[in-house]
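Convert to structure. Protein one:
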Amino acid sequence: MTLRHMRIFICVCDENNMTKAAIKLHMTQPSVSLAIQELESHYKTLLFERLGHRLFITEAGQRLLIYARHIVNLNQQAEASMQSYGEHYKLRIGASVTIGESVLVDLVQYMYKINPQQEIFSEIHNTAELETMLLKDDLDMALVEGKIQSEYLIVQPFMSDELVFIISPQSSILEKDEITLSDLAELSFFVREAGSGTRDLFENTMQQHDIKIRIAGAYNNAETIKKAVIAGLGASVISRRAVSQELKQGNLASFEVKNIAFKRNFSVVYHKNKYLSPALQSMIALCHNFESIT
């Protein structure tokens, strides 16, 4: 099978339609259909179920798609490397929101100190989105706070983290000698969006203690959550790293609840079939040594 077959297959998967794929690839629809048929004949399995005018990728197709993206991307990397021999190609790094707000910039800064010529592109998404991007080979590596589901991704913890309850310093709940589980049920919570590692850990912990929480808002960034809590609109659970300044300045207060702890790890994640370039190896090593150099 050729790179052409792989590129056509990827485009059909992305467009979920052979006609749309043909338009995007500047090909005829019969040529696209023939390429898919040749793939299915070669691998002796169906890659798509054809129901009416709709395509549904099969389990075999999903498996091939993972390899196809990496085959095409590795070819592109080889082309870029050979055509600009001695130059660096762009390192693509993703980070979940908490890591992006508390760790990512320092990591990139240290990487530039090690190799000033290295080009780096970084972006922030929640853990679920980053996992999808790694599987599609839209990122070289990601730094996540949540749980990774895919068996195709390698996960390496590199830093410990703790979530804390936060509330306005003026809240009457802080006057209690001991805040209980039943007190939590009376609070309104501002949480991260679905797919966030922080939200998953919070909700799973609450479920384990059979606590039904009241959600007042869901936001995709920590800053908005902190503003809502500072304004006295409710409470939240957030990484201690993300609120260290606000706690020191007295703009926010934290509290503890007996038998409840939110411990987790930040992890480096990359695809198991990923070619680990020297730059990527350096960034991974930097993550593992981050706490010792800061």
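Protein two, convert as well:
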Amino acid sequence: MKLKALRSAILLSLIPTTSVFAAGLDRSGQSILPFLQSGNYAEASFSVLDPNVSGKEESNHISVADMADDYYFPSAALKIQATEHFSFGLLYDQPYGADSQYSSAAGAFGNGKEGTSVKVRTNNLSLIFGYQPTENWNLYAGPVYQTVKGNVSLRGSAYSLLSGYDINLEEDDAFGWLAGAAYQIPEIALKAAVTYRSEIKHELDTTETFGSGAVVRPQSVTEVVTPQSVNLDFQTGIAKDTLAFANIRWVHWDQFAVSPTYLAAATSARGKKQNLIDYSDDQISATVGVGHKFTSKWSGSASVGWDSGAGNPVTTLGPVEGFWSVGLGGQYSPAENYFVQAGVKYFWLGDAKAQTGGNVVGDFSNNDAIAYGLKFGYKF
């Protein structure tokens, strides 16, 4: 059942949309799999998430229109096998993010002119150095460079006196690190890897305004700590030209909070400190599936996924509690050294209560999302 190098790559990530929607702000899933490809390898991919998240206001049960914007993000990877025992890689992704825009209609999340909105953007560049003492083992580690920025506007009766609050978090960069180990048995296409990524602490220059710009607070600094995580990846041949695969991911969202200086002061003065964003539970997610090579040029896969969410009630800026998903992917290899992959994944999003200031203000249920992805890979 020994598989060729490219054939074994069928499921080193056949579906580009593996982790497009997840708990908290998690988006890319921070996969290490391109670095585990044999020889020299490069890839580029692009994914699109189209969510539908709507609900009702808690106080009067008035409908809340779809508040989740489409989300687009690229990723890329380069892996070089410099010698028999040493390799290095460069991985780019956008690990965390958010895009939400409520209707401007007057109510819990709009004031008749503007609606509550959030936009968070991150970029990750991971430089990885690997040591392969034997054919079976791969030990790797390296620095991670990360940028973060965001903008949030609160509008509507759900935020009481905070309606009209705006915050601009200017882009900040900082460093973290990753480390891991992988084991393989090429004869049965078995690969297993565990990867740890550290938390990364950012200090973002911040401008806060209240009353839709009527009161501008002096510039301050907001601390944002992106969470530590662990990824476990596994695949093995189970029949001729057929692989089973799994990914398990843990992200430390518990106790994650963004607490800007003047927002914290204003809410504390009213009796209860309020965070801009916070989560109460760690995230655990899992994806399992099978991939099959039909011909020398065509391969396909199917997967099922689950995500625990990061606590409920949740922030009004992302009112979803986990998901179930199913995915399909296909790969076309015109030659043995390059391929094109495409995938689609459907998500059943978990029902959630949205809260602000400790009060439940919205009920979001029966929501879904669909994701698409396209990937190009090249071995050289």
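Residues 261-269 form the longest helix (9 residues). The chain has a mean pLDDT of 91.
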